[in-house]
Specification:
With 251 residues, the protein is an alpha/beta fold. Helix content is 52%, strand content 14%. It has a single domain, classed as 3-Layer(aba) Sandwich (Undecaprenyl pyrophosphate synthetase), CATH 3.40.1180.10. It is built from 10 helices and 6 strands. A 6-stranded parallel beta sheet has the order 3-4-2-1-5-6, with helices on both faces. The two termini are 36 Å apart. The structure holds 3-methylbut-3-enyl trihydrogen diphosphate and magnesium ion.
Length: 251
């Protein structure tokens, strides 16, 4: 009751504030959440976490956010965590995340990351969901998976050089012509606006190689809650802080 009053109050307040077009979310704290809730099996935290993204997308779209990037797993997570945990994350990506995109007709899906780090079935499920959602225009959802911000920049530069080699352009010309825009066009998901706001849950105060290129000018909100415990009011509060800061800066 109190919660819904508070939610409505926040929504009213947000109506008068600038709002972000693109919100990026670092969904951190699944395992700590699971342990804190008394589950020995941390995979339960990942399951709640994956399902939780569906709610977050609903809240975001209710709040008028049309572009969301969600960090599902870093390249390091896939390389360094034990294989049973990684297998389970991949299974969730297929059965929860890709499946959600199939069913929720709002979101056009993009994938950022090194798809060759993923098992074939996961890469295939994501590619199919990208194809299936290609013509949707209500919102853009990017799943960052097997993602590293530094590697994204390396891959972008490599792709600029590959194109130049294919066209027979000399290295001198490439160096001469290289601009921010040119690198931007070779990122994993070109054409999206930069994130206005990045939210990280679980109280960790780091960017951890997320959206290195795209988030240089983003506002950042750190939230102490573990990802599965993050509520709509926490999103609305982050949007309120963002809106107030933007107002101050523009005045
Ligand atoms: C976030 O939760 C999900 C992934 C990175 C895959 P964590 O698995 O990082 O959970 P904590 O941070 O260890 O609690
Ligand atoms: Mg973590």
């Amino acid at each position: 009751m109190l919660y819904s009053l508070y939610t409505r109050r926040l929504r009213r307040l947000l109506a008068g504030l600038p709002k972000p077009e693109h919100v990026a979310i670092v969904m951190d704290g699944n395992r700590r959440w699971a342990r804190g809730a008394g589950y020995d099996d941390v995979r339960i935290g990942h399951r709640f976490g994956a399902k939780h993204l569906e709610q977050f997308l609903q809240w975001s779209s209710d709040a008028g956010v049309t572009c969301v990037t969600a960090w599902v797993a870093s390249a390091d997570n896939l390389r360094k965590r034990d294989s049973a945990e990684v297998d389970y994350l991949m299974e969730l990506t297929e059965s929860v995340l890709a499946d959600h995109v199939r069913r929720d007709h709002r979101w056009r899906l993009h994938v950022a990351g090194q798809l060759d780090l993923l098992p074939d079935s996961t890469a295939r499920a994501l590619k199919e969901a990208v194809e299936l959602s290609r013509d949707r225009d209500a919102g853009d959802l990017t799943l960052a998976i097997g993602y590293s911000g530094r590697l994204e920049v390396v891959d972008a530069v490599r792709s600029v050089l590959d194109d130049a080699a294919a066209e027979g352009t000399s290295l001198e010309e490439v160096a001469d012509r290289l601009t921010e825009e040119e690198i931007g066009r070779h990122l994993y998901v070109p054409g999206l606006p930069d994130p206005d706001l990045v939210i990280r849950t679980s109280g960790e105060l780091r960017m951890s190689d997320f959206l290195l290129w795209q988030a240089t000018r983003s506002d950042i909100e750190f939230c102490d809650l573990y990802w599965p415990a993050f509520r709509e009011v926490d999103l609305l509060r982050a949007l309120r802080t963002y809106g107030r800061r933007r107002l101050e800066r523009s005045s």
